[in-house]
Specification:
Residues 2-95, 112-149 form the FAD-binding domain. This protein is of the alpha+beta class and 363 residues long. It has helices spanning 27-38, 86-92, 103-106, 110-123, 134-155, 160-174, 248-261, 268-271, 296-299, 320-324, 351-361, and strands spanning 2-5, 11-14, 59-60, 65-66, 70-71, 78-79, 214-217, 223-225, 236-243, 276-282, 306-308, 332-336, 342-346. The protein contains eleven helices and 13 strands.
Length: 363
């Protein structure tokens, strides 16, 4: 049995119905079954807003698209029981979600989040049509994991402790923070043509969503979660972990990166239809950095795009670099896809690999 508080003081009660004619089930039938599970306590109702009887069926489509021209997402490609509302969540990740959404609405919608930006980039003529093939490559495995989770819930529906354990262990998955895509043209990990250098950002897993940490705006000193700089607007983010740029030798490395981004082989940063933003996070004390001294390629690409790993209002060094597993002195670069998943990590001098990777994606 599952009891879930709902809006307006209502409560949803789910019970397992065995060997009963579905046409004969009524609200009274459901309450009677719930009463058995709650004895010696009593349960009753004065008003039933709605009730339904459903059979738990798990199915997965044989393909998610036809010639990359017609696409299926959400319940059209994977069906399962309505337990926990996980279906709606995953469907949103298939195309594109609103800025904020309840976790129970997130998992079903995630396939749409994965697909929407890819279609947009191909239609706008900034990405090659082959990008669309990655939709099924990435989402089929997630759908299979979803069905396995639903099977665990269904098989343990009468075991309260088992359900609690299943929910707890699956929390990173149901919140979409542990979903990790495999190697492809847009995930540079072993098995892909270009492989990231994960050692530069040990806690930023390529293929997973970029995690958030508290940072401070360089120009205003305003503290914020770094994730606020990654809106769902169809853009890639080149995150430059600039390191300690108060050190002249490190500033020279960052300046060299800025010059490299201005070269023709890195034309994607200017000529790709505005689908790239640059964010810089340095590890120096905010007071020791002057925006006017930073390369224009990096510091004026967008408003308020330079941040410090500082403690707000105190000026002491923060912990974002440590949480990300990035060396505070050396820094690195990280590329985040429009859906928030990490595409590539490497050193400040590894722009050539990134250029090769993007040449396979962009027109």
């Amino acid at each position: 049995m599952m009891i879930i508080p709902r809006e307006n003081g209502m409560v949803r009660v789910s019970v397992k119905v065995d060997d009963i004619d579905r046409s004969q089930v009524s609200p009274e039938t459901i309450i009677a079954l719930a009463q058995k599970g709650l004895a010696p306590y009593k349960i009753d109702f004065s008003h039933c807003d709605w009730f339904a009887v459903w059979r738990s069926n798990r199915r997965l489509a044989t393909c998610f698209s036809k010639y990359e021209r017609v696409f299926l997402a959400g319940d059209a490609v994977h069906t399962h029981s309505p337990k926990a509302g996980i279906g709606l969540n995953f469907s949103l990740q298939d195309s594109k979600p609103p800025y904020t959404i309840h976790w129970m609405a997130l998992l079903m919608l995630m396939p749409a989040y994965n697909l929407g930006w890819k279609i947009a980039h191909v239609i706008k003529g900034v990405a090659k049509p082959s990008l669309l093939k990655t939709y099924e490559m990435e989402r089929r495995e997630v759908a299979q994991q979803l069905l396995s989770f639903d099977e665990d819930l269904s098989s343990n529906f009468t075991n309260g402790e088992a359900i609690k354990k299943a929910f707890t262990e699956a929390l990173p998955f149901t919140s979409c923070t542990s979903i990790e895509y495999g190697p492809s043209m847009i995930v540079a990990k072993p098995g892909a043509n270009i492989v990231s250098k994960q050692n530069f950002a040990q806690h930023i897993t390529v293929g997973r969503r970029f995690p958030s940490q508290q940072v401070v705006e360089q120009d205003s000193g305003r503290p914020l979660q770094f994730q606020e700089c990654f809106p769902s607007d169809g853009k890639y983010r080149l995150v430059v972990f600039a390191g300690d740029i108060a050190r002249p030798e490190q500033l020279r490395r960052v300046e060299a990166l800025g010059r490299s981004l201005a070269l023709p082989q890195s034309s994607w940063i200017q000529d790709s239809g505005g689908i790239f933003d640059i964010l810089m996070l340095h590890s120096s004390r905010r007071e020791d950095v002057r925006l006017c001294k930073l390369p224009s390629t990096l510091s004026t690409h967008s408003k308020s795009n330079v941040f410090a790993d500082n403690v707000p209002y105190v000026g002491e060094l923060g912990t974002a670099y440590q949480a990300y597993g990035v060396d505070r002195l050396e820094g690195c670069i990280v590329v985040v896809r429009p859906d928030g998943h990490v595409m590539y990590t490497g050193g400040l001098e590894d722009l050539e690999d990134l250029n090769k990777m993007l040449s396979d994606i962009l027109l």
